[in-house]
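Practice set, problem 2.
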Amino acid sequence: MQRTPDLLQAVIAVSHQAGEHLKRFYARSVHVRTKSDNTPVTEADLFISRFLTEKLTALTPDIPVLSEENCEMPLELRSKWQEYWLIDPLDGTKHFINRTGQFGILIALIQHNRPTLGVIYAPITGITHYAMKDYGAFRLQNGRSVRLRPRRIDPSKPLKIAIGSELAIAKVRSILNENIRAEFVVHGSSGLKCAMVADGQADCYIRLGRTGEWDTAAGELLLEELGGNALDDHYRPLTYNQRETFVNPDFVITADASVDWKTVFQFNLS
């Protein structure tokens, strides 16, 4: 399928429609249960998953949709896909439950195992970040779309590192080059942390712990369009739809691919 600005705008509109539903769930108490991987899921996750799947299928009937909440498909079948939608209907479920407002809706188009279109929508702030391969990265706020610009990380300033919780600080410091000064920015939702890097509020987002491919696809593309990159714990690109598991390895997603990140984070040494 050809990527076009019209398709991108249609996907943004779908994310905003889903966000309206999500805000209604957020305004009341929701039923929560624990999944087999010991993570929480709410009725909001499941509703938004169905909603996005239906809307994206209507938009592109020939392209399958893979959701965090509907991913029971063996690699043998899905490896034949040349393209598919990859969605996280509620990125930051714990933050949704704890009412921090730090959650988002993530939609990515994967083509030939790489993200080529991505939308990150934060319903509470109303801010949308979006990107398309070779098209650029943008922030949409209050009806105004602004093209985001690449930037170089200034080595003379402390490195701003986005992480998911205060508890992660010690773990990240254990693999951080001791000669590098760092400041930590704590925020919920993988997608929203990628958006913070895109906006210059952080220089990189590091995750030492469990995430899924749906957590990173849209954010990775957003930063790639700005000259950044995503590296796993062996300093290789993240992969999509190439393993039986959807669980990501530890990774760092950055604003500046020109930095030698091997000299910043020593993965597998902690």
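Problem 2, part (b): a different protein.
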Amino acid sequence: MNNVTPASSWTDVEWSTFKTWISGVLKETTVTVTFMKKDGTERVMKCTLDPMLLPPTVVNENRKPKATPENSIAVYDVEAMGWRSFVVKSVKQVQFAIG
């Protein structure tokens, strides 16, 4: 199991690099992300962006896609079986297995 713990002292460039990195890992595997919710509570979420694990996309031409803020990542919560998001700078720890 690999662990990554972001530092609150990171620069905006480092957070941007982290966002790109974690997005790439999410596309390959399930990741356990620990982050602080907007209400100040800690949340641990098992999530992914792996196309093999995502539910089928339902096309509704009348519905506009939701916009995800630039500082957030939209992910599929594999335990709640639904789409969620988290603010990148609120991440406390990332855990994932390779292979």
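Answer key, part (b): The longest helix spans residues 12-26. The radius of gyration is 14 Å.
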